[in-house]
């Protein structure tokens, strides 16, 4: 009985702590959303009112009409979609080679490839800038898109998933005259939808939130993405926090939508990994 009571007490304590932590994490988001619907004079009122006394939808209209926000939005959508598609294709093909094929030097090549994850992004930013300058790719969206195609993390994630599939499936397909590309596209990829969607979600979030690369490689206002554009918009808004929060809320919409669409696969992927482990 005492063990049962102790277990219930520990579960209750864990639930309370998780609830407090969840509230602490979600409160800034709620405050941002609430502020985006307030008039500027109501933003700094105390005590904080999470439900606006007077709703002001004009903030969103002003963000869209009186700034380059739509341009930043479109630029980010274009860069992110192309980056995610390219990363998914190249990472999955490389993962198929490392996880399903046999060739000389595969282990060494894979180890060297994984070792590049140890190099901080800030270390290679200057060489990358000089290289892109020589190619004439600075001040173009390709300077953001091309590096994202070659994701070590994407290859690592998919390679481990592909390697778990029994080789007997590939051998049976070969006996029926299937090619490696047919097996890759018709067998391996469909069996790994949760892992693929996990990579899509991670790649989308990373590309959408990328701040350092657009800041360094882009200087023309018409090319800026949402992160740098939002910072510029905040500087131009003269500390109008209601407008800034409206812009930040708009910037979050795509990430929330993608997560809502992919969360089932995302959770399924981690559940499978936990059961497998």
From TrEMBL:
The UniProt entry lists the main location of this chain as membrane
Signal peptide span per the entry?
Answer: none
Q: Where are the transmembrane segments?
A: 12-34, 71-96, 108-130, 142-162, 183-208, 241-262
Pfam families, A to Z: BPD_transp_1
- Keyword Membrane (UniProt): yes
Q: Which UniProt keywords apply?
A: Cell membrane, Membrane, Transmembrane, Transmembrane helix, Transport
User: Does the keyword Transmembrane helix belong to this entry?
Assistant: yes
* Membrane topology, record value: Multi-pass membrane protein
* Record-annotated ABC transmembrane type-1 domain positions: 73-262
Q: Name one GO biological process term.
A: transmembrane transport
UniProt-annotated location(s): Cell membrane
GO cellular component terms, A-Z:
plasma membrane
Q: Which InterPro entries match?
A: MetI-like (IPR000515), MetI-like_sf (IPR035906)
Name the Gene3D superfamilies on file. MetI-like
Q: Which family does it belong to?
A: Belongs to the binding-protein-dependent transport system permease family.
The family database entries (PANTHER family) matched by this protein are listed as: ABC TRANSPORTER PERMEASE PROTEIN MG189-RELATED, ABC TRANSPORTER PERMEASE PROTEIN MG189-RELATED-RELATED
Name-wise, this protein is: Carbohydrate ABC transporter permease
Please give the organism: Candidatus Avoscillospira stercoripullorum
């Amino acid at each position: 009985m005492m063990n049962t009571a102790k277990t219930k007490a520990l579960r209750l304590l864990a639930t309370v702590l998780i609830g407090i932590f969840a509230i602490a994490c979600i409160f800034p988001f709620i405050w941002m959303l609430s502020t985006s619907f307030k008039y500027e004079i109501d933003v700094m009122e105390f005590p904080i009112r999470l439900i606006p006394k007077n709703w002001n939808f004009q903030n969103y209209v002003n963000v869209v009409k009186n700034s380059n926000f739509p341009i930043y939005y479109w630029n980010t959508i274009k860069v992110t979609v192309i980056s995610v598609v390219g990363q998914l294709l190249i990472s999955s093909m490389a993962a198929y080679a490392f996880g399903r094929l046999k060739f000389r030097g595969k282990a060494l090549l894979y180890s060297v490839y994984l070792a590049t994850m140890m190099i901080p992004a800030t270390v290679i930013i200057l060489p990358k800038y000089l290289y892109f300058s020589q190619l004439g790719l600075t001040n173009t969206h390709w300077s953001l898109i091309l590096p994202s195609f070659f994701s070590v993390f994407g290859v690592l994630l998919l390679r481990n998933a592909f390697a778990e599939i029994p080789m007997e499936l590939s051998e049976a397909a070969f006996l029926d005259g299937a090619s490696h590309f047919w097996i890759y596209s018709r067998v391996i990829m469909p069996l790994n939808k949760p892992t693929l969607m996990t990579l899509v979600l991670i790649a989308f979030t990373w590309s959408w939130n990328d701040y350092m690369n657009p800041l360094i490689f882009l200087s023309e206002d018409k090319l800026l993405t949402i992160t740098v554009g939002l910072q510029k918009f905040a500087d131009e808004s003269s500390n109008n926090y209601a407008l800034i929060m409206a812009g930040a809320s708009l910037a979050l919409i795509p990430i929330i939508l993608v997560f809502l669409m992919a969360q089932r696969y995302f959770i399924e992927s981690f559940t499978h990994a936990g059961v497998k482990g």
